[in-house]
Each structure stands twice: as C-alpha cells, then as structure tokens.
Amino acid sequence: MKVEIWSDIMCPFCYIGKRRFEAGLAQFAHQDEVEVIYRSFQLDPNASKDPDHDVYGLVANKYGVSREQSIQMHAGLVQQAAELGLEYNFEHAIPANSFDAHRLIHFGAAHGKRTEVAELLFKAYFTDSKHIAKMETLKGIAAEAGLDPEALEAALNSDAYKQEVLAECAEANQLGANGVPFFVINRKYAVSGAQQSDVFLDVLNKGWEEEKPLIILDPSSSGKDGQVCTDEACGIGEAE
C-alpha cells in the first residue's frame, strides 16, 4: 500500500501531521507493507531566500493581525507540537524559500534517504532554527543523513531535481490539494490536514481492506472437485 504525503518544510501543521500519521501507522497491523513517500509542495513559491521578516511578522502581515496576535497564534502551535514530542522555536525560526530544500529531499530519494531527509529538514527549521535556503545548511543535513554533501552541492548548482519539485507541486493541485499536509492513500483516499492519529489509522485500514488480494477457496474442502474450465480442459462431462 502506498501513502503519499504532500508537505512544505515551513508548514507547522505538516510536521505535526507527520507525527500524527506516524502514530496512526504505528498502530496499523500491516505497517511493514506500507510505502510512505514525501512529496513536494510550496506554500509560497515567491518567498525570498533571505527573508525581510521573522515568522511572527510574516504571519502578521499575511493575515492583517498585530504582532502580539501572531505570537499568540503561534503559541497554540507550540503547545500542539509539544504534545507530540516536537520542539518549535518560532522566535528564532528563519522563514525562507523552500525550493532547494525540496530538491534535497529528491536528492535523498535518489539515494534511498527520502524520509530521513524530510525529518531532518523539519527539525532543522522548527527546532534548530537553521536557514534552510542556504547551501551550507543543506549540505550539513545531507551529511547528517549519510549523503555526500559535495554531490548535493553539485546537484543544487545545476538544474537537478527542479522539474521533479515543480511536477509534484502541480500534481498536488491536480489532486485537489488546497493546502498541506495532504495525504493520499493508494490514489483513492485523501486526508487533508493534520488530523488525529485515529483518522489515519481508519483510512489505512479501509485502504488495506479494499486492496487485499482475492481469496480463492479450496474446492476440496466441499468434498467435490471444482467444476471449472481451464486452457487445457473443461469439466463439462463431470457436471451432475
């Protein structure tokens, strides 16, 4: 079973949603048979690499609220994150363009490290207050994930993974994602937002029930041979 998760590195609900999904997955009886793929989405593709505002000022300007109101809004997110064992340090966070960070995720995917890189990027931004648009930050994350930082630098200095990021952002819109996080199960069910873990568990169970293979009953259990046609024979003459 495949679960695709569209998210943006600087989306606070995406990190919370990641943890809640993981909690639901941990309770899923068939968790070892689930492939989880983190997909790219940019909330603000036009964001600067070197921001003019901190997080509080950015949200205050975007929603037309005071800085004090913005701080209060973020305090609620800090509490939600803490309940999941996450540490959010918005007062030191550096909002920046996430495009190259998403390219790093694709670089990680090419080396079997997609999930690890996504986790490290969330932690770098929300907990460690690192500038995720800077090359040195991204190279450090690559090294922490066991990847070659010099190979990453070469990739980011080229056009590598740009089209992959853009294609996934476009695909999210085609699937009806109005925001992130956006979870798609087997391309049949979608869950929008950082829902509680039991919501994710329910949809995983539903997806599994509908995906499980057809069970063929053993005709010998009835005491009679099955009446069936194959490529080589047909049991018409044996019909009662």
TrEMBL record:
MF GO annotations: oxidoreductase activity
**Ranges for domain DSBA-like thioredoxin:** 3-204
Query: Mind telling me which Gene3D superfamilies this protein's record contains?
Result: Glutaredoxin
What InterPro entries does the record point to? DSBA-like_thioredoxin_dom, Thioredoxin-like_sf
In this entry, which stretches build a coiled coil? none
Question: Transmembrane residues, as ranges?
Answer: none
Record protein name field = DsbA family oxidoreductase
